[in-house]
Write a structure and sequence with these properties.
The chain is an alpha/beta fold. The chain has 17 helices and eight strands. Bound molecules: adenine (ADE) and zinc ion. Adenine binds at residues 24, 27, 62, 174-175, 202, 205, 253, 283-284.
Length: 341
């Protein structure tokens, strides 16, 4: 990574057209909206007010976050709730100059509470279609299996989602990583691939590099979500570099979940220097203190990066997106025009 260039301005980064590949829509639920939905749906939250909820965002690891996150997601009950959640994020993303996003959602987090999958998907899709029409933001959907549940539940979810398979660009794997290795879901992802869908997986966030290899070899993942622990195993790094498997890195998330102590300790520059295809993403921005633009700005400031390095990261996300050639070329052209202007 070139570090001798003049530091890039915040205005340049904020205005840069962007692609986001690692965002959980449930993780965009802002505290104020959580309370509005709780009241509307007559749900009692374990926090008395927004201030107390925000105070609960002092996470010690992934599980401590997931406990709050799943509690928060419980306020989402109707298609209208999912629509409002997604539309609020679309507006923020468009203001952040996001042009294309591939957005995760967790079907089981909702169907497990008795919410119909159709309500979840109809609500999300209505917002994403509106974003395409009104905001120039294109959103693709990636349902994720939650790895704290068993493989039979993942297979049942895949089957329940059959009517919408052609609306998804991939299936993913998220939730509690440690103790839930990728191979637990080998048959589920074999079925995903048999359905003609791509595979992505969270791996190497808290889990060891072996989980990254497992995601590649046992699940057929073509993109790794997080992956930052790959540097602990040279063979894993070599494999990721050789195959140019993209990593969807989430810097502010990694700091909030204590994968790294401070943003300055993040290994993003080492990952880039090793030749990995690194992208910048926000993960669960309402919980981690920053949306996509904030992540770009935090990285540039922490490492004193210049324009070329930051534009390269933005180009990597375009390379790693699940889009056709013509659309990829148009995303590239827009970014090039912005940089050249
Ligand atoms: N679900 C939402 N955010 C997640 C993360 N960072 N890791 C695993 N599962 C998640
Ligand atoms: Zn994630």
């Amino acid at each position: 990574m070139v570090r001798m260039d003049a530091p890039v301005s915040e205005a340049f980064l904020r205005g840069m057209p962007k692609v986001e590949l690692h965002l959980h829509i449930e993780g965009t639920l802002e505290p104020e909206s959580m309370f509005v939905l709780a009241e509307r749906n007559r749900i009692r939250l374990p926090w008395p007010d927004v201030e107390a909820l925000r105070a609960a965002y002092a996470f010690s690891d992934l599980q401590s976050f997931l406990d709050v996150y799943y509690r928060g997601a419980d306020v989402l009950r109707t298609a209208e709730d999912f629509y409002e959640l997604a539309w609020a994020w679309c507006r923020r993303a468009a203001a952040d100059h996001t042009r294309h996003a591939e957005v995760f959602f967790d079907p089981q987090t909702h169907t497990g509470r008795g919410i119909a999958l159709a309500a979840v998907i109809d609500g999300l899709e209505a917002a994403f279609h509106r974003a395409e029409r009104e905001l120039g933001l294109h959103v693709a959907m990636i349902p994720c299996f939650v790895r704290h549940l068993d493989e039979a539940a993942a297979l049942a979810t895949l089957e329940a989602a059959r009517p919408w398979w052609d609306r998804f660009v991939a299936f993913g794997l998220d939730s509690a990583e440690l103790g839930n290795p990728p191979e637990k879901f080998a048959a589920a992802f074999a079925a995903v691939r048999a359905a003609g869908l791509r595979v992505v997986a969270h791996a190497g966030e808290e889990g060891p590099p072996a989980y990254i290899l497992g995601a590649l070899d046992r699940l057929g993942a073509v993109r790794i979500d997080h992956g930052v622990r790959c540097l602990e195993d040279e063979a894993v790094v070599a494999r990721l570099v050789r195959e140019q498997i993209p990593l969807t890195v989430c810097p502010l998330s990694n700091v909030r979940l204590r994968v790294f102590h401070r943003i300055e300790d993040h290994n993003l520059c080492e990952l880039v220097a090793r030749g990995l295809c690194v992208t910048i993403n926000s993960d669960d921005p309402a919980y981690f203190g920053g949306y996509l633009g904030d992540n770009y700005v935090a990285v540039a400031r922490a490492f004193n990066l210049g324009r070329p390095a930051m534009v390269r990261l933005a180009h990597n996300a375009i390379s790693a997106a699940f889009v056709d050639d013509a659309y990829r070329a148009s995303l590239r052209a827009e970014l090039d025009a912005y940089v050249g202007s």
